[in-house]
Amino acid sequence: MVIVKIGVLALQGDVREHIQSLSDCGVDARAVKTKEEIKEISALVIPGGESTTIAKLARAFDLMDLIKDRIKSGMPTYGSCAGMILLSDVVKDAIQGQETFGGIDMVVRRNAFGRQVDSFETDLKFKGITEPAVRAVFIRAPWVESVGASVEVLAEITDATGLKHPVAVRSGHLLATSFHPELTGDNRVHRFFVENICRELAGSKG
Ligand code: GLN
């Protein structure tokens, strides 16, 4: 049993599904939406939903700077889809003035897969997760356009023109996926976060 309290940012998006996936991994997971709650957790999950809305609400509820600071000072954080956008340092096709928490040295493109294929599912090889392949659900998903040297690509997808785009990345204590493992009932990506990122960091603090 890993002794971390994981908060799921509960401003908008598929909060309940992430809490379920984390609970299935045996961790203490709860919805967080106040400063006090966010100060208490030892790790954070930012759900899928709408990145512009989550960012606006974080700013409106005065959580933006606290979350940015906690991420900067090493809190393990996992973002799926909108959550990936919110962890990215740079966003293409953002709305005007769109803020992110940042932390991962990468450029993501919002809604990158285009209208005709807004939503689809596929099987992906995910570095660090053994067979079978991970079923990945993409819903108006971003992809990663470029990453800095500190960022490890864990999964990629090939687009219609044959180009590869990262759709899962890790940068130290931060993990992000373009897709939604919280919607498939397969909790191996959450387990990867809990066991390889949260536990590793909890362990390294002695
Ligand atoms: N397109 C959404 C955004 O920009 C993300 C979609 C999702 O999280 N399923 O935030």
Helices and strands in order:
Layout: E1 5-9, H1 15-24, E2 28-32, H2 35-40, E3 43-46, H3 51-60, H4 64-72, E4 77-80, H5 82-87, E5 88-92, E6 104-109, E7 119-124, E8 134-139, E9 143-147, E10 152-158, E11 164-171, E12 174-177, H6 188-204
The chain binds glutamine.
EC number: 4.3.3.6, 3.5.1.2
Binding site for L-glutamine: 49-51, 110, 139-140
Family: Belongs to the glutaminase PdxT/SNO family.
Description of the structure:
The protein is of the alpha/beta class and 206 residues long. It has a single domain, classed as Class I glutamine amidotransferase (GATase) domain (Rossmann fold), CATH 3.40.50. The chain has helices at residues 15-24, 35-40, 51-60, 64-72, 82-87, 188-204, and strands at 5-9, 28-32, 43-46, 77-80, 88-92, 104-109, 119-124, 134-139, 143-147, 152-158, 164-171, 174-177. The strands form three sheets. Strands 2-1-3-4-12-11-10 form a seven-stranded mixed beta sheet. Helix 1 links the parallel strand 1 (5-9) and strand 2 (28-32). The model has no long low-confidence stretch (mean pLDDT 94). The structure holds glutamine. Glutamine is lined by residues 48-51, 81-82, 85, 110-111, 139-140. It catalyses: aldehydo-D-ribose 5-phosphate + D-glyceraldehyde 3-phosphate + L-glutamine = pyridoxal 5'-phosphate + L-glutamate + phosphate + 3 H2O + H(+); L-glutamine + H2O = L-glutamate + NH4(+). One of its GO terms (biological process) is L-glutamine catabolic process. L-glutamine binds at residues 49-51, 110, 139-140.
